[in-house]
Structures are given as C-alpha cells and as structure tokens.
Amino acid sequence: AAMRSRAEVDATLQTAKLNPAELLPAVHCLSFGPQAGGGECCLLQLEPGLCAELEAGRSLIIRGEKDEHAVLCSKDKTYDMKIADTSNMLLFVPGCKTPEELKADQTSCNIIHSQIAGFSKNYWELRRCRPKLKKLRKLLMEDPYEGPDCQKDQASTFSKYTTEDLLNLIQASEEEILHQLQVIDACKIEGYWRILDFDYEMKLLNHVTQLIDSESWPLSKVPLCACLEELGSLEPREMIEHILLSYGRKYIDDGEVFFEMHEDKICRAIAQMLLQNAVKFNLSEFEEVWRQSVPEGMTTRLDQLQGLALVDKSSRPETIFLLKVEDLPEDNQERFNSLFRIREKWTEVDITPYIQDLCAEKQTVGALLTKYARSSMLNGVKVYNSRRPIS
C-alpha cells in the first residue's frame, strides 16, 4: 500500500465532514501486513487480579481432558472459558499509541504508518466457576487403601495418583485440589494420594476410641505419643496419626501434641457404618442402636447426619436411609433431577444439605431453588418440586 500524505489525509477528513481542529494532529495510517492472518492470535479477557498474577510472573494453566470443557486455573481459583463474539473487528497493531500516549508525547510525528499484524472477531471470556472436584474422589475411590496387610493392594492394577497426576487430571486450581484432599481425608502413602477403605477407617477409629475409653482421657485432650505407643503394634503409626487428624483437631500444649476429637464427625461415621448395611432403617430403632454404638460421653443428634442420611417422615413408622451428597451429580440441573427422582417434594430444610455445595460465590440456596424448582404449600409447609417432568 502506498504511504498516505498529509494532503490526502486532510482531503479524506473533508470528504467525511470532520473538523481537523477537533482531532489530534497525529494520524495513524493502517495497512495490513503480509502475515495479518486471523488464526495466529487468541485474545483472553482478564480481570485485574489475574492480570496481576501474570505480571508477577506466575502462571495461568488451562486444564481439561479431551472430552471436558476447558477451564483456566490460577494458583487458587478456577474459571470457565467461553468464546465471546464481537461485532467489531479487533485489530492487533504492534507499537500502536493510544490517544493518551500521543497527548503526552508532543514530539510524535504528524503521520504514523502502522502495520496490522492480525485480527480477531472473538475473544475468550473468563467466568469464575466452582472447581470440578467430584472426579478427585472418583479417581481415588477406584482403589481405596485397605491397610498394610492387604494382598489386593500389592496386586492392584488401578492407577495410583501423585499430586502432579491430580493437577493434570482435575479441573481445579492447585490450592482447591489440596484443600479438597483434606476435606475427603485423603492421605499420602508412598508418595501417592489414597482414600482409606471405609471398613479399614472404622477399624482404625475403633482402636482409637477404645483406647480413649480404657485410658479415661478427656475427648478434648488425646495425646499423640501415647496413642502411637499403644496402637503402633496393631497398625502403622502414620495411619494412627492420620485417623487422629481426620477425626480431631491437632494442637500443642507444653511441647506435647494433643488432639481434640470431633464428636460430630465420629458420631456421623458410626451412623454411616450402621446405615450402609440396610436399605431403610426404622428411625426410632436406628436412633437407639446409634446412641449405644458411639463412644461414652458422646451425644448423637440427627443434624450430625446432614448430607449423609435422609429421614422419611411420610412413612409409618418413620424411616431413615443413606443418601450421601458426594454420590450425587456435580452439574446443577442433573443434581436437582436426581433429587426429584428420589423424592418428589422437598422442604427447604431437607434439600439444603444436598444443594449447599452448588452455591457459587455469594449465591444462596434460595436463589438456586428459585431457578431449578417451583414452590407450593403442602399442609401449611412450603415445599419444592421440579420445574420440568422427571423421567
């Protein structure tokens, strides 16, 4: 393209009925360069926090296997990636000066000839999303750890996963993955993350609670050293410590390590053990057996079972059955579909533990119910049912 002269620029302004006095004196004359193809560049729109991450030299990572929708992760957050089309053509002009820069630089010449290096009609838009962590538990549950004596573990053909493996497979940031590993009580064995088989976990917990009982220790002050000393001959010491970490809070008093045991979590685990052997359990019978099964000094309450078990008040007599929130789908619509298959009408109190984890930042359970369910009154109580027919 021939270089434009000032006279040609002024003639063009006149034809366009524009007053040169209202414009900046410097003029950008654009021409397409030889490599101005559209496919070379991708635009990514970043919020200030993510911009700061990159400027500080940290990485942003795109995660997802071939059959998954891509997400972008910083060190501690996860974002959905969507292509946004724009009606304006976006041009990439290296060294392009903005009006502010031109005003600041009075020496800039009258006509600036710039070459367009590329263009785009769309860009990637990021939206903060919940990390997709369900797969984490699923992978680790392929091969739960049944203890050091288990022959099956030696011969297992299942994959085992290091932190690096999980970072490649799970669509979440590193901090979110490490936090979730804590939540699901995973532990590192020989460099691999494992979840304990539930029966083995109960066996370990039983050793600890029996020892607490026989030594008459207060539940708020269980000494690590004595536990390892007494139980180390029965199970690996790191497993004893892991079960104390899973079911207690570690603290140091006068240089010695103690654990304050979580009463609610222990009662909940024992309830799960009782419930997993029956499809449905008569509620009053269950409450009695449960009360007798927990360690002395602990009190059972039904609210300890939120997201683990559901009471059916409509049956006579009332029953209780196992329904674990982690077994339900991760997608919002699929979660509601599966809940409405289990029960047609839900009260807010009953459904909340099963949808609480779906709430995005600053979103309430009420907002989720408004979107995915319809409310009605039943015997003076507000209930929710599906907005669409459930097959």
From TrEMBL:
Domain of life, per UniProt, equals Eukaryota
Family classification: Belongs to the DCC1 family.
Fetch the Pfam families from UniProt: Dcc1 (PF09724)
PANTHER family per UniProt? SISTER CHROMATID COHESION PROTEIN DCC1, SISTER CHROMATID COHESION PROTEIN DCC1-RELATED
- Bilayer-crossing residues are none
What is the protein name for this chain? Answer: Sister chromatid cohesion protein DCC1
**Which stretches are annotated as coiled coil?**
none
What InterPro entries does the entry give? Answer: Dcc1
Q: Which GO terms describe its cellular component?
A: chromatin; chromosome, centromeric region; Ctf18 RFC-like complex
Q: Name one GO biological process term.
A: maintenance of mitotic sister chromatid cohesion
Keyword list (alphabetical) reads:
DNA replication
Q: Which gene encodes it?
A: Dscc1
